[in-house]
Amino acid sequence: DTAVSQTPKYLVTQMGNDKSIKCEQNLGHDTMYWYKQDSKKFLKIMFSYNNKELIINETVPNRFSPKSPDKAHLNLHINSLELGDSAVYFCASSPRPTDSPLHFGNGTRLTVT
Amino acid sequence: QQQVKQSPQSLIVQKGGIPIINCAYENTAFDYFPWYQQFPGKGPALLIAIRPDVSEKKEGRFTISFNKSAKQFSLHIMDSQPGDSATYFCAASVTGNQFYFGTGTSLTVIP
């Protein structure tokens, strides 16, 4: 009974391709996030949505585009993939923007070759 | 600029030891300080959190010590076990704003 689930778990693709990662939460939370964890395990926020509205949009290349069709889903689409995009991408949710625990998914390991 | 500085980067202790992980911050507006635990292949999970109105919080074998004047907080793991081997992240946030994570500490507890 996974609270925050993301698919796929692994994604291997070539440079220049376009790919998407999907995320769903069944916790009834209002806020969802995308985080990037690099090879040194540093966690950096990319985007945050509250009730389907974008509230945090960190400095990421505009090749990355989040989409929230409803409160329970937040997808990440990446265009023209580059080698440097290789990382683990985590989806997370919280009842409200910060000030409350983040519930993370198990990550999507993206490898760009 | 790293908003939350975490040390050490890695830590090895014997079973039963008390590993201590330290974090420091500059932004005095931060009002929520959680610690997350991450096992390989999994997402981080909330371990324990503290607000700046208390100096210590304990949950089971995990204790946060908070020093508001020094702008530092630390995680202590009592009677550490091999199952505690994981990466630990401190974080800080201003209510309603984003979380800032430390750089992580890889803990290994040797049986």
Compute the number of strand runs of chain A: 11
Shape of chain A: globular
Proportion of beta-strand residues of chain A = over 45%
Which sequence of SSEs, written as H and E, runs from N to C of chain A?
EEEEEEEEEEE
- How many structural units, i.e. domains of chain A? 1
CATH superfamily of chain B: Immunoglobulins
Whole-angstrom Rg of chain A: 13 Å
- Percent strand of chain B equals over 45%
Please give the share of residues in helix of chain B: under 10%
CATH architecture grouping of chain A: Sandwich
* Main sheet: strands, sense, barrel of chain A: 7 strands, mixed
Name of the level-1 CATH class of chain A: Mainly Beta
State the CATH class of chain B: Mainly Beta
Can you describe this structure?
The complex is a heterodimer of chains A (113) and B (111). Chain A is mostly beta strands. Chain A is 0% helix and 56% strand. Chain A has no helices and eleven strands. In chain A, the strands form two sheets. In chain A, strands 2, 4, 5, 6, 9, 10 and 11 form a seven-stranded mixed β-sheet that branches. A four-stranded antiparallel β-sheet of chain A has the order 1-3-8-7, with no helix packed on it. In chain A, strand 5 (43-50) and strand 6 (53-57) form a beta hairpin. The mean pLDDT of chain A is 92. Chain B is built from no helices and eleven strands. Chain B is globular. Classes of the chains: A mainly beta (113), B mainly beta (111). The interface between A and B is medium-sized, with 21 and 25 residues.
Topology:
The complex is a heterodimer of chains A (113) and B (111).
Chain A: E1 4-7, E2 10-13, E3 19-25, E4 31-37, E5 43-50, E6 53-57, E7 64-70, E8 73-78, E9 87-94, E10 103-104, E11 108-112
Parallel strand pairs in A: 2-11
Antiparallel strand pairs in A: 1-3, 3-8, 4-5, 4-9, 5-6, 7-8, 9-10, 9-11
Chain B: E1 4-7, E2 10-14, E3 20-25, E4 33-38, E5 45-50, E6 56-59, E7 62-67, E8 72-77, E9 86-93, E10 99-101, E11 105-110
Parallel strand pairs in B: 2-11
Antiparallel strand pairs in B: 1-3, 3-8, 4-5, 4-9, 6-7, 7-8, 9-10, 9-11
